[in-house]
Design goal:
Shape: globular
Order of helices and strands: EHHEEHEEHEEHEHHHHHHHHHHHHHHHHH
Structural class: mainly alpha
Number of helices: 22
Low-confidence stretches: 1-7, 268-294, 650-662
Strand content: 5-15%
Strand order of the largest sheet: 2-3-1-8
Number of strands: 8
């Protein structure tokens, strides 16, 4: 159409899993799987059916024209060449910007189109259609989605995205297995393949690791060089430099995030308020009651009062939930954390201390799961206006649990007992054990689950067909992907994917190295090395071990940015307390010149923290200039169009006829 050719060969991007059966059963009249396949073809899909050991896989691919028609039907907003986001129209395809790889639609946009199409398989007749499956009759009601009906009947087992082998292998070579550029990553290719939020995460991780080289080098010097009596000057200098480093990093990250959004032509109308599953029920947000919306225009005063009441009741419910979580942490978790910290201080054997820390880290995982489930129940009663806001609320609540778990024991050793050697041992054990356990859980457990699923599938195949001998292999890649685990979070898969655990790991690491920088400067070097390895292991995990994740359209790191800013403020307070402790070794707490200087320095750093947000603009000059240029062009075009409409007189407005000059 309009001379537009297919930009890429047909790539199957979605798979539907149904039970495998014999050909005799499949050829029955009105077989539900056959009807489903025909419905997929009718809505415009290319369909490929693959038979596995136990299940059948229906692979779906949508040509460009099908995606374009659906995008136009959904009124999907896309960026035009003049920088204005307009509803997509297939006939005006040349007016819209392309993706970094030259494609018309991003992975997030294609996924939304796929999601709409697979649920468009509805019964358009006025009566029920009786379908069959293994002798069982299924009644397909008018207007009902066939996919949802088959899911409820247990016939459609799963619907999941498929890897594109060509792009996946290319990313393996240029990203996961490329160890020469330690912090460089193909962010544009990651965005094209995985979507916005995963690309933003890896862009943040790469920039964070590059910026950490400076405090890591400074920390190495402090650790291996004995400054003697000058340490009372060197440690404050290190503390000031790390705070300035952190503040500058996050200001420049905002600039980079803004530049990435401009480069990828991101808008916030795609997927920001939708569920993240291809099938099943979505996580619905609590929207204003229908009565309030329908009553619009009847009584403006009453309508305003009702909406304000609904708004403030929502805020009060959220405040109630936050208070409940905080009190639960203080009353239930705090005594457990203090008991662990006291035992660690009393025990003399280093081996027993190390074992106690390992057991403690395992136990708190169960505490966190319980807290996560409780937070999910509380969030359901908040009036968050989008799924991303619900996700942010969950992040705040669960991070509160982790904050108490990770730092209360360290505060106990640092501020109460004032034992520098014990504090350093705790920090080393926490950093090493946490990083090791997290990497083991992230990479080994998914691989073990995948191996066990393959073993069980082969064993069941041999039991069912006893005559089989020799080694049974999976002949199709789609079946191997079906066996792989999903990229899911440790809590609430409806709201969060695996990025929750990755960001949580970064936030806890950042808090540990920043809040106790003066006690253990070497932690920055360890964290830099850990993050370099984390980038490659996370890439391998996504490309090799796990299924292709469902894309998310969030263009920022969301609530995690506020958490990082909070940790910077906490680091100013805790490091000031550590410097006071180093200076006042006798414990007299007198306001002498040195202590007074530390207090003044703390207040100055707090002012600098808030002042740098004004000093460093959050948006690069070229992004701001481009936005202003696009706005001017759009205004000029709208003005010309409006003038043409006015000059049309009766043709444009019917009742209006322009007056002629006499």
């Amino acid at each position: 159409m309009n001379g537009i050719e297919e930009e890429n060969p047909i790539v199957f991007e979605i798979a539907v899993v149904v039970p495998g059966r014999s050909l005799k059963l499949e050829n029955e009249g009105y077989d539900c799987v056959e009807v489903l396949v025909n419905e997929f073809r009718n809505v415009g899909f290319f369909v490929d059916r693959v038979l596995g050991l136990h299940d059948e896989f229906i692979k779906l691919a949508a040509p460009l024209e099908t995606l374009g028609v659906v995008a136009a039907r959904l009124h999907m907003k896309k960026t035009t060449h003049i920088g204005v986001d307009l509803p997509f129209e297939w006939e005006e395809i040349e007016a819209f910007m392309r993706q970094p790889d030259g494609s018309l639609f991003s992975w997030c946009e294609r996924f939304q189109c796929y999601r709409h199409l697979i649920h468009e398989t509805v019964n358009k007749k006025n009566s029920d259609i009786t379908l069959k499956f293994d002798g069982k009759e299924i009644h397909w009601e008018p207007g009902e989605s066939l996919l949802q009906r088959l899911e409820l009947e247990g016939i459609v087992k799963q619907v999941f995205p498929l890897h594109d082998e060509t792009k996946r292998k290319k990313l393996l070579r240029s990203w996961a297995l490329n160890w020469w550029d330690l912090t460089s990553q193909p962010v544009d290719e990651i965005y094209v393949y995985y979507g916005t939020k995963i690309a933003v995460y890896f862009a943040f991780l790469g920039m964070y690791t590059r910026w950490m080289i400076f405090p890591a080098a400074f920390g190495l010097i402090l650790h291996f060089v004995d400054f003697g009596s000058l340490k009372l000057l060197v440690f404050p200098a290190f503390f000031i430099s790390t705070v300035l480093w952190a503040v500058l990093f996050f200001q420049f990250w905002k600039r980079k995030n803004s530049a990435l959004s401009a480069r990828w032509h991101l808008n916030y109308s795609v997927g920001t308020s939708h569920g993240y599953k291809l099938s099943g029920r979505e996580w619905n947000c609590l929207q204003p009651p229908v009565e309030l919306v329908k009553g619009s225009g009847i009584d403006k005063t009453k309508e305003r009062e009702d909406l304000q009441r609904y708004e403030w009741f929502g805020y009060l419910r959220r405040f109630r939930n936050d208070v409940f979580v905080i009190l639960s942490i203080i009353c239930l978790q705090l005594p457990f954390e203090l008991a662990y910290a006291h035992l660690y201080e009393v025990i003399e054997s280093d081996i027993v201390k190390f074992g106690l820390t390992a057991v403690y880290l395992l136990v708190i995982q169960y505490f966190t799961k319980i807290g996560g489930k409780l937070s999910i129940r509380l969030i359901k009663h908040e009036n968050n206006d989008s799924t991303e806001n619900q996700s942010d609320s969950l992040v705040y609540k669960v991070f509160g649990l982790y904050f108490m778990q990770s730092y209360i024991g360290v505060f106990y050793h640092a501020l109460l007992h004032r034992n520098l050697m014990t504090l350093r041992q705790v920090l080393i054990q926490r950093l090493i054990l946490y990083e090791v356990l997290e990497n083991l859980l992230e990479n080994s457990l998914p691989y073990l689950k995948y191996s066990y699923k393959k073993f069980r599938a082969v064993r069941n195949k041999k039991k069912r067909e006893k005559g089989l001998t020799g080694k049974i292999q999976f002949a199709t890649r789609v079946e191997k992907e079906y066996m792989k685990p999903t990229y899911s979070a440790s809590i609430c898969e409806e709201l969060e994917d695996g990025l929750f655990d990755d960001f949580l790991e970064l936030a806890l690491q950042f808090g540990m190295i920043m809040m106790f920088a003066c006690a253990f400067p070497l932690a920055f070097a360890f964290s830099a090395l850990s993050n370099i390895a984390e980038m490659r292991t996370d890439a391998l995990k996504l490309l090799v071990i796990l299924r292709r994740p469902v894309p998310r359209a969030a263009a920022t790191i969301g609530a995690w940015l506020n958490i990082f800013q909070f940790l910077i403020l906490m680091s100013i307070c805790t490091n000031s307390a550590l410097l006071v402790w180093l200076y006042d070794q006798e414990g007299k707490w007198k306001i002498e010149p040195g202590l007074a200087a530390i207090l003044v320095m703390e207040h100055v750093l707090l002012l600098i923290k808030f002042g740098f947000s004004r000093f460093v603009p959050e948006e690069p000059a070229w992004v701001r200039a481009k936005r202003m240029k696009n706005a001017t062009q759009a205004q000029d075009m709208c003005s010309k169009q409006l003038l043409r409409s006015i000059s049309g007189g009766d043709k444009a407005f019917g009742h209006y006829t322009p007056k002629k000059d006499i």
